[in-house]
Amino acid sequence: MLRIAIYGKGGIGKSTTVSNLSAALAQRGLTIMQIGCDPKADSTLLLMHGQRIDSVLDTMRAHGDPALDDVVHKGHAGVLCVEAGGPTPGTGCAGRGIITAFEQLDELNAYGVYRPDVVLYDVLGDVVCGGFSLPLRGEHSDIVFVVTSGEMMAMYAASNIASAVERFKTRDYAQFGGLILNKRNVENEDEFVEQLARELNTEVVGTIPRSSDIHECEQRQCTVIEGAPDSTVAHAYETLVDAMLAKAAALGLGEVGSR
Amino acid sequence: MGGVALSRLSLFLPSFAADYSGVCSCLFDLDFLVVMNDAACCTRNYVDYDEPRWSREKVTTLCSQLRTLDVVMGDEAGTIAKIVDAARSTSPRGIAVLGSPVPAITGMDTSGMAKEVEVLTGIPSIGFATTGFATYEQGIDRACRGLLKKFCSSPANRPRACRPGEPCEGDGREQPASPAPRPRVNVLGITPLDFGTVGTEHDLTSWLQNEGFEVGACWCMGFSLEDVRQTPKADVNLVVSAGALKAATTAEALFGTPFVVGLPCAGKQAAYVAASLRQAATSGSSAYALVGSESEGAGGNAGTDGNVGAGPQRANESALIVGDWVCASSLRSALRLEGWPGKITVASLFGKRPVFAGAEDAAIACERQLVDLVRNGNFSSIIGDPLLGRIPGARASRHVRLAHPALSSNLFEAEMLRYLTTDVSKLL
């Protein structure tokens, strides 16, 4: 089992990227679990064709002690979709929400029951507190990638996340896999992100071109892997999957297909 | 305030020993530096109320004395520095980093901190994500499994205990005709939080020796780190409290050691446990040495003499035993084997229903459920902690006082039951 955490600045396109990665991996015959770690609980919308699923936290609040079937929903290509959920905006503690949801998934033995080949965590924004660093911890993730564009704030967030991984190196946290460039077509974007990768002593593992196909598929509430499989951008996601798996293999991390 | 919140209110019972106290109790004998990440109150719960050995023996405990800004700013480095200083001055054999409610809320990474501490000190360190929201048996569980994973490795070609004259599994060697082999048994799950400090651990080890077993590690009273390391060498693990159930299954998965669940009580229950241990040691199959979980009274349960005042008038009686799942179920098993004919229900305030629970046994999530159970159950007798006498409706039943320190601390030490030296047939 390979566990991948995807971080990045809010609005950078993490959920779209992660959903397309999940779909691409699932279409290769692998069992994939995607866990959204955002109080908005909208990470898996494209895989669920627009249907909102009950989050772990909402289910816990409603039922106290939920069953695994209550919180794990099968989406496109059989991807196992989970939303951690979180408090109403402006209240509660979103970080603690992630911790509680992860504890519940452990309690329910989610990985033992579904035995996914790959788990993808789609984590909100920056590593702002202990709760949002949880997916980085070694007991949850093997490798972390950061989605960024060439925009300054996105790169700043990417740098912060890379710093957090570096800071916790002695704690056996997930290893830093590299940057994913989700292009916004800003000037000199490739050069900026390549420069950032060099400064962080890492690499750009893949580039997703800006494409109207993504927007059109989102309107149809599906991934481009499903809705536009022959598009350039779908091929880019496939290439990205290959690169991410190769990176994980090069680091000697959880072999895909091993259970 | 909504009804859900009020349903968790305790009006008659005190707060229970928390998970961090379970971890501390498990580690007490092992010369660990125990670090409580708290403002000081959880540390005081542990040393003042939950751990009776604290006042009698010297054990190193460090309270990190968290303050608001430490938590808000996530100052784990400051706490790590304190731990390293304390470790250098006390030279413990291990270090445990525990959480408490506030660090749990902010996501303090106790395991990560322990890894850093281990790198800095060279001393084996374990982090426990205790929260104070969970009860003690979950702490015992965390500690037992943490120790197993940290200090135990699977023994190569561990020979299975075998009968004289039979080839032993694993190495094909022939066992000499005499002397008879002594299966090695670890005891898992004995702490003062369930058994007090009245000597039950000594009763258990003496009983095992008298039954012809070699005693391995006695988790978690009267053992050392070396005993922990030798744990995989046992032929069978004996689980005497619910806190050790997962540790037993972990040991079975990691080392292939079968387990028997059941606390030996004086009389037939002890004989039943001993026979189950021998069977498990030779067969390699785990077992539950518990009878009587059926919903109706056994009455003529096979193999019982019916000498507990059994008679038609007693068959209509019913008893409720409230306590740790394994202890209470073992007591029921003992009463049943000794022939008590009435219906016996087990209830526990600690942990989920185990697989060996009977259909009418109850995992009590809050005091309100216990009140309802007592009111609606019409039990002729209630066996449980003296504080259960405060529960409305309990006075209608005969109360057999059996102290449970996780509930009542050391208030009733004199009313601890020594299961192996007490004639349980006289309880009801």
From TrEMBL, chain A:
The keyword Iron applies. Keywords: 4Fe-4S, ATP-binding, Iron, Iron-sulfur, Metal-binding, Nucleotide-binding, Oxidoreductase. Gene3D superfamilies: P-loop containing nucleotide triphosphate hydrolases. InterPro entries: NifH/chlL_CS (IPR030655), NifH/frxC (IPR000392), P-loop_NTPase (IPR027417). CDD domains: NifH (cd02040). The key enzymatic reactions in nitrogen fixation are catalyzed by the nitrogenase complex, which has 2 components: the iron protein and the molybdenum-iron protein. Belongs to the NifH/BchL/ChlL family. This is nitrogenase.
